[in-house]
Write the structure tokens for this entry.
Amino acid sequence: MSENPREIMEFDVVIIGGGPSGLAAAIRLRQLAPDTSVCLIEKGSEIGAHILSGAVVEPRALDELLPHWRKTGAPLNTPVSEEHMLYLTPTRGYRIPILDRVMPHMRNHGNYIASLGEVCRWLGAQAEEMGVEIYPGFAGAEVLTENGRVMGVATGDMGVGRDGKPGDNYAPGMELRAKYTIFAEGCRGSLTKQVMEMYNLRKGVDPQTYGLGIKELWEVPAELHRPGLVQHSFGWPLDDRTYGGAWMYHFGENLVSYGFVVGLDYPNTWLSPFDEMQRVKLHPSFRPYFEGGRRLSYGGRALSEGGLQSIPRLTFPGGMLVGDTAGFLNVPKIKGTHTAMKSGMLAAEAVAEAFLTNRVEPGSYTRRIRESWLWDELRGVRNIRPAFARFGMKGGALYSGIDAMLLRGRAPWTLHTRHADNETLEPASISPKIDYPKPDGKVTFDKLSSVFLSNTNHEEDQPVHLKVRSTSMWKTVNWDVFRSPESRYCPAGVYEVVDEQAAPALQINSQNCVHCKTCDIKDPTQNIDWVTPEGAGGPNYPGGM
Amino acid sequence: MKVLVPVKRVIDYNIKPRVKADGTGVETAGVKMSMNPFDEIAVEEAVRLKEKGVATEIVVVSIGEAKSQDTLRTAMAMGADRSILVETDSVTEPLAVAKVLKALVDKEKPDLVILGKQAIDDDMNATGQMLAGLLGWPQGTFASKVELHDGKATVTREIDGGLQTVELALPAIVTADLRLNEPRYASLPNIMKARKKPMEKITPADVGVDMTPRLSIVSVAEPTGRKAGIKVGSAAELVAKLRNEAKVI
């Protein structure tokens, strides 16, 4: 398709991704250097369309970036007023007040419950007002390099048929060239993956580990709504070897954000994160809130859990990584928005300096990160998530208590992540099967009616954007050994096994894909490659998500 | 030849609309909006006429809130030359819209107005017909093919049970149906260029139109859910159920 020459546009800075980190970088750049031309592309149909988070937002970075946000209509309107950490058994939920005390990083006083999608739409409007050129609906498909330096990205071709041939409405991609390119793709960015390989950015750091968050947005009867309530749970229904738990946040006008995170280092191939999420709603600690309510939306997204030990080299000639594509999420805090924004701001500062000194690699970014509160924060909690991986849920909780209370995050040792998430699955033959309850259509639902609420769509006639490298590998490993874990971990029903009895084969319903990236992460042999589909495809999360 | 294409900003067709909890309307806060798909077809048809050398200028117009300028930018990225935003926060009922459009037609003097046959938000299917009535122009609605020659338009219409071909003397109104064409993408280079195309901003008052609604919405409700199906054991049982329970035979 390269016979059609692509048009070229030159900018000072190109940012890939319109989430909190990319938008914060864009805004900071225009604050520091108002003459800098900044172009931001976003694969979602609009800013916020692909944003999925709880979210309890710590406003620290926002305070630094736009100090007057409270007066200028930022959609952070529900302060956290009440907070519970529950340990669940199959029938009871125990409040663990000591956990609130020993884990200072869990305290949410001063934080806000919000829709991160709405926050991003607002940030996007601020950025546009400041002169950032924002182009939603265009996916970065290719990293442009010249003499070993990243020179920007090219957007994907539009109107390519399923057979890979240009159709009637074919429109070639465009080269967006820049002196500096900031990758802000969120967890497991597809271009970031290429850049990491090109510049060997992961050399000498722990493998990144991930979680999968699956979320529902509910509207509940006013008498059940307790604005400001934050409830987290751990324990049932996950076994001790599986990291994760549920969240429930009450905010806005009778809205409840409910969701479930599972660490993608889970060993049981029969585990279905979607069904775990559904069945926790039936627990007496959660169920009453959903009775008589109405489910409004649904979605899923992977998040980085590796923390400090897994952060790659952050810069390379011509650019840098910011936000969760670099892995700045604070896992024990269950928050990454403030760190993502902070990293974007520091990247902007480094780029502004690099312009002055004409440097190829904006290397001062790494130093700025290490000197910031972001680094202190991640260093303080660096052992907690690895402790759960090593000692199990109960041992991990005990370790966290000791780490937080006695050592105050200053342990002289560092626990390392030993396995990437794709290496942890155990064969189907030795994994205990899990019996999930059937959806009742009122509180619990099946996968397809859920995906329907994510407003997901992809242009039907386009190449499949989930590339299975080897179908024989799928048969001998994914099917014969693990019985198709992708059909369970995918929260959107993309992967389906057909003809199970006679000749099992994998069917990929790529139109359903909500861009969570879990398959790219968890596939046992890394046989699935997630690449960007035609721009504007994917979910369209509505306001409130 | 000048073509005028009115476009409307509506909830994106990929979004499942949600009725507000109080039943007063459909939730639009934070919901993705885009150009009414039938209007996209109308814009595409105009752009194709220009590419064929038949049309010389395409003017797009949108009546609605300030954000409708995004819709106009999209139309210009597809190939329209300039745009007019008639800014109003009022409800946009077909008659008021048609009156605004009539005023703009009087001013712009296009030879052809192509509209979407209906907007997917209220499904009124009235603006094109009302505009034709106000102007006293011939109309070719539900068009699946449009050919222009010698001051005339031959329009193939999709009607119940088949196709009807009509010939209209220009100036005329055409409303676009689904099969008229497949709209192009607004490509990134063209979106960038469209930022520099002219956009005139006026209000309904500037053209002397009162937007006060004439219709009042009594209530808005979601369709009732479908009942679960059942399996029957025999043809006799099926017939019995169709007769006694469903009461359809």
About this structure: The longest strand of chain B covers residues 139-149. DSSP finds six helices and eleven strands in chain B.
